[in-house]
Amino acid sequence: MRFRTRPECKRWISPGETPSPSAFRLRHAVAGRYGVRNSVSTIETDVTVESNYLRAVLAQWASGVVVVTTVRADGGRHGMTASSFTGVALDPPLISVCLVSTSTTCRMIRGSGVFAANVLGHDQQNIGRRFASPVWNAATDRFAAGQWDTASTGAAVLTDAVAWLDCVLTACHPAGDHTIIVGAVQDAATPRPIAPLIYHDRTYHEGIVR
Ligand SMILES: Cc1cc2nc3c(=O)[nH]c(=O)nc-3n(C[C@H](O)[C@H](O)[C@H](O)COP(=O)(O)O)c2cc1C
Q: What residues flank ligand 1, with Cβ below 6 Å?
């Protein structure tokens, strides 16, 4: 197996190969571009893997699917599909999602300071697709699918989600072109504990038998 470096490196680097001075310069150039000087990943990484290749490798990781919702500045609701959901801590109760920093949802969570994560069931693929679609306006209201309620923070929760967690934003950690959003759980529920929706290799799967 070999890794394709970013286009600016213009060559292949094999695992185990000692990074050349140009690779060293490259990783500092990339680190500078993303403003992550002195981070552990910057110092430890010898090569920068080309992003389409990295996407294909990461697609082999299976995950559940959540819809992250938040409150718009005008009081309306917004949300997007995400697979980067993780439980972070039990005491205090913290969860995280990792969102593209330029996504509307990420910007709105920063603005409102609240969000909810809704875990989708195996039969809710349509909701996953809808909230991932880049097109959204009055005619293509993402919330037109599913029954939605309002949790205590004001974020929308799916009444028949497998589970939902309603959170107050506690931290935003920049991570390259993404932001790790950490929230303190204010309320949580498991309205419909059925088999979850699974996402693997860019395909939805109906999940484990439950
Ligand atoms: C299954 C699935 C999982 C996704 N997971 C993430 C994720 O974890 N983080 C992210 O930034 N985008 C993720 N996306 C892409 C967003 O859902 C998509 O870019 C969305 O249109 C963003 O909406 P917004 O710009 O209105 O916030 C995922 C898409 C799919 C289909």
A: 65, 80-84, 98-100, 103-105, 128, 132, 134, 136, 199
Each residue's pLDDT tens digit, 170-194: 999 999 999 999 999 999 999 999 9
Which atom, in ligand 1's list, is nearest to the CA of 78?
A: 26
Report if residue 2 sits inside a domain: no
**Domain containing 96: what range?**
53-206
Instruction: Let me know if residue 173 belongs to a domain.
Output: yes
Digit-coded pLDDT (tens) for 136-169: 665 678 999 999 999 999 999 999 999 999 999 9
Find the 70 Cα to ligand 1 centroid distance in Å: 14
Exposure class string for 73-106: b at 16+ Cβ within 10 A, else e:
eeeebbbbbbbebeebeeeeebbbbbbeeebbbb
CA distance 96 to 209: 26
Look at residue 77 and tell me if it is in a domain. Answer: yes
Total structural domains within the chain:
1
Pocket test for ligand 1, best of 51, 63, 80 (most atoms within 8 A of CB): 80
